[in-house]
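Entry 14. Two folds queued back to back today. First construct below, sequence then structure tokens.
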Amino acid sequence: MTQTLPVHVTVNGEAYERTVPPRLLLSDFLRHELGLTGTHVGCEHGVCGACTVLLDGDAVRSCLVFAAQVDGAVILTVEGLAGEEGLHPLQAAFHEAHALQCGFCTPGILMTLVAFLREEPRPDERAIREALAGNLCRCTGYQKIVEAVQIVAARQGPDAGGADGRSRTGKAE
């Protein structure tokens, strides 16, 4: 008999209760158990960043975390970024700056940058590039992505305390 563990988790503002095998990865849980396929699986070694989600507000590689480890946690995936008012400011800036091509890496990059902008609301280009260092994109030279982040930072104003006034879960306060 296969052992399973209970998991109670809030994903994109919705509570879920499931029983999962101990070795089920968070990326697979999100994609296959919850149907949230915006979390992409690339290298499955934590190197490419395509599977990045926010776990209790911190950017993590979901391919390196077991679903059983997130019991009681709050997770935000790319599907949870846009709200009733429309696209998240970073998503809108990506559109405006033409900051994506094939889009495979985009969800992980967006989630990385949402957490980054919360910590560093007015970054310079070097800091943006350093933040992107853990996200691999085979289509772009990252310049348009950097420009999108600069658009968001400029719109936040000099007294910005974080990315667009959203809470650590990504929901508007």
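Second construct, same run, same settings:
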Amino acid sequence: MSDNSDRNKLFCFGFGYVCDYLAYSLKQTGNWDIAGTTRNNEKRRILRNNRKIEAYLFNNEQPLADPLYFLEDATHILVSTPPNDKGDPTFLIHGEDIAKLKNLKWIGYLSTIGVYGDRNGGWVDEDSEIRPNSKRGSRRAKSEQQWLSLHKEYNLPLHIFRLAGIYGPGRSALDTVKTGAARRVDKPGHAFNRIHIDDLVNILIASMKNPNPGNIYNIADDRATPSHEVIEYACNLLNIDVPPLLPYSEADLAPIARSFYKDNKRVHNDKIKKELGIKLLYPDYKSGLESCLIAEQKQAKQNN
């Protein structure tokens, strides 16, 4: 165990799926303290009592009770709070507090590749124009600009991560197939990238070790693929019949699903490889889903 002078503290605004995996990985090193926020009293209790994580209530209507005290020792902050029409709630409520912190080495904001909008299947990189075509993408683009303004004004050690679709054990096409909710919709030419949670965590940790404030990173795998191919592969792994292919024009889709098919692009991920030295564990959906299945089978055995 390192002495206190070597310790770091991660504070997560929005302690969800990503922060959960990141916190677990960091705690394995032995010199990290973890804190974060949740909107739910029951989750706060679980995080504090079961996980030994400093957990605080925070939402649009409920700021941190004593932000400068709670954040005082934070060396790293990860922001994954969902934005609204006004932008990112963490920025709006506590951005100025964060700018005053003396010990901060790194801050990451989790955005989305949705800020690029639709490119008719073309490629985007971090220098591509921001032109979202959905409310979610527009909110993220606004939030990015808000955090970048703090970086420029206060030299905040900010890093923006534009995420493709995150998946992992318990949260992948395998689970969609198991519930019987999977459909294979065919929209010719449509493809999208994903990122396995383990690769995302490795990228965040690599950035923490090599901060480059003001930088933006695309977080995506090597292979943009139609969603119906992913569902088919998940069915094959589970030995479940593959649903029939349904033409997009005939599909009865919820608005959020239809908005997914309106964005069509392929994402360059060269920057995380060149600048952060990343070698993806799961460069495509096949290796990622295979890993998810193994992890879920292992967990099932432990539970029995």
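Quick look at the second one. The longest helix spans residues 135-154. The longest strand covers residues 32-38.
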